[in-house]
Specification:
Number of helices: 8
Order of helices and strands: HHEEHHHEHEEEEEEHEHEEEEEE
Helix content: 25-40%
Shape: globular
Structural class: alpha+beta
Strand content: 25-35%
Largest sheet: 5 strands, antiparallel
Radius of gyration: 21 Å
Length: 304
């Protein structure tokens, strides 16, 4: 029996996607496919190497997705995949392959952080030390594109059918937890400031974030310390770290905090975030903080 057959058989014994509507299943189909894909050194969409643990994770999910699609008689030609769009192909055609390879070569295996955005705003970070920080609630704005838009004050998990008649509400630290009609919801008690970065250089993020440039932060610890000192204190507690991505059908809601967890649809973004949580519940507005002496370890790069 092949590995693919083993994974298929294991899924059929625990058909956890059975509870999804066809629309929900197609959304999951798309997100698994999108996370499987990378943009390679030649500026082409590729599936990458199956020797990578991350790639293997998504290939296994793909095998399960295909098994479920066959049971539903849903096939690939029925899926309108959002990643294979005209916008994406136009972006790929503009990539300067030489620049892409040079940047990947100098950033590979480096402990850098990255900020994607418009050059005019990234220049203000270097030249004026201005960092624009938004409250988490901002990211639920319906005008944002799908790569950026998310409800950063809530997280949802779909429990199995054994919980469909359970109705529970509890509070844990600064989070409210509830189970209702098989949906597990976590809600944070207060808005908070969040500053989002990426752990890796990835050309895909230029396209997803509508960015024309990427800011490379070559001394992350110094950069983070300066941001912390500018805002944390009597009003806010500060923390930072990697975002952990959860599968809402399979993962345990208690394994991660709300602030540092996101649906695995966003897994390819490899986010590293800084968070400022107010000690007392309050509404927050976007704010600008000023940092000094940071230009020497920042660099703006482009691939178009």
């Amino acid at each position: 029996m092949t590995n693919q057959e083993i994974i298929q058989n294991e899924y059929l014994k625990n058909r956890y996607m059975r509870c999804l509507s066809d629309e929900e299943f197609m959304n999951r189909f798309n997100l698994v496919f999108e996370n499987m894909c990378i943009i390679d050194d030649n500026g082409k969409i590729s599936l990458g190497s199956v020797n990578s643990p991350e790639r293997m994770f998504w290939f296994q999910h793909w095998i399960r997705i295909c098994a479920e699609a066959e049971l539903r008689t849903i096939y690939a030609n029925q899926i309108a995949n959002v990643y294979l769009t005209k916008k994406t192909h136009q972006f790929l055609e503009k990539i300067d392959i030489k620049k892409l390879k040079q940047i990947r070569s100098k950033t590979e295996k480096q402990n850098y952080l990255y900020k994607y955005g418009k050059e005019k705003f990234l220049r203000k970070i270097i030249e004026d030390g201005e960092i624009y920080i938004r409250p988490a609630s901002f990211y639920s704005d319906s005008s944002l594109n799908s790569a950026i838009k998310d409800d950063e004050l809530r997280r949802y998990y779909l429990l199995n059918q054994n919980y469909k008649n359970v109705n529970i509400k509890i509070q844990l630290n600064n989070e409210n937890h509830s189970i209702n009609k098989g949906i597990y919801k976590k809600t944070i008690n207060s808005d908070y400031y969040v500053y989002c970065l990426a752990e890796f250089f990835d050309p895909r993020l230029f396209n997803d974030f509508d960015a024309d440039s990427c800011l490379i932060i070559k001394h992350p610890q110094d950069f983070i310390k300066k941001i912390k000192n500018s805002l944390a204190g009597e009003l806010f507690s500060f923390s930072c770290g990697k975002v952990k991505y959860f599968d809402p059908l399979l993962d345990n809601p208690f394994e991660t905090s709300l602030i540092y967890s996101k649906n695995f649809a966003y897994s390819y973004q490899n986010e590293f975030r800084l968070a400022f949580v107010p000690y007392n519940t309050r509404s927050l507005n976007a704010t600008v903080i000023k940092l000094s002496n940071i230009a020497e370890y920042l660099e703006i790069v482009k691939i178009i």
